[in-house]
Amino acid sequence: MYSLERKSIFLFILFICLVSFVSANDTLQYKLKSVSLIPNEINNFSLSIDFVIDLNGLVMSTDYWLDKSKRPEFHVTYQGTKPDSTCPLQLNPTTSTHGFGFILSNFNAKTISLFKAKDNQISIQCDADISFCMKDKNGTLVYGMISKSEVNSMINDNLSISDSTRASFLSALNNFYYYKNSVDFGIEPSNDSVSTRYFIALKLQNKWSPANFLKCSKGDNTSIKPDFFWSLDTRLSTNFADSLNYIKFYPVNLAWSSKNYSNQFNLKLGNESNQTFSNKRSAFDASYSLIIPNLVNLTTPSDNRLRLKPLIDFGVKGYYDYSNGITAFSSGEGYLDGHYYIPIYNSFAMIIDGSAFYDLSKERNPNHKVSGNYSVIFGTEVPKTGIKAIFKYINGKTDIDYKQGQILMIGLLADFLHEKK
Amino acid sequence: MALLSREQVKAVVTASLKVIADLPDDVESSTFANFNDQQKQIFLKTLKNKLNGLPYIKDDGTTTDAAYYDVDLTPGSIASWATVKDCIDWIVANQKVVYK
Question: How many independent structural domains does chain A possess?
Answer without folding.
Answer: 2
